[in-house]
Amino acid sequence: MKVKCERLRDGDARSHEEFLTLGRAYVVYSLLASPRFGIKVRLLTDLGGNALGLFPIEMFSIVDGRLSPRWQAAVTHGGDLEFAPPAWLRAGFWEDSFEPDDLPASPSAEPDRTSVIDSEMKLIADYDRTSGGGSFDRD
């Protein structure tokens, strides 16, 4: 799935200028549909590295609406529906990913979360790039 940034402000008028570039296309790494928060897409932001962020779908137009074959669907206890790589759907995955370095890693931290995130991002981007979804180059 691929989206193009059409607005830098969300429905709450929060600016996302530091994270996104107007007119730029982004690979969608996961999709969240929440009765509380609406539909959000998880993208690689412009901050560099592997800084992923969740953004309201209303900020984007759909360039390629095909769902990644790497995704599975899961419904959380809160009623959210998420499409993402299976490892990312584990309860607490994202919360565990942001533990401060000085805290011991939880027992569920195997394999290294950063490696899991990195490898899934690469697989999703590689599939989209080679399956006719167009170029996902960042420039």
Short recap of the structure:
The protein contains 2 helices and 7 strands; from the N terminus they run βββββββαα. With 139 residues, it is an alpha+beta fold.
Characterization of the model:
The chain has one domain (about 1-130). The chain is built from 2 helices and 7 strands; from the N terminus they run E-E-E-E-E-E-E-H-H. The longest helix has 18 residues, at about 115-130. The chain is globular and about 30 Å long. By secondary structure, it is of the alpha+beta class. Strands 1, 2, 3, 4, 5, 6 and 7 form a 7-stranded antiparallel sheet that branches. The chain has helices spanning about 95, 115-130; strands at about 1-5, 25-35, 40-45, 50-55, 60-65, 70-75, 80-85.
Order of helices and strands: EEEEEEEHH
The Rg value, from CA coordinates, equals: 15 Å
Portion in beta strands: 25-35%
The overall number of domains is 1
Overall average pLDDT:
82
How would the global form be characterised?
A: globular
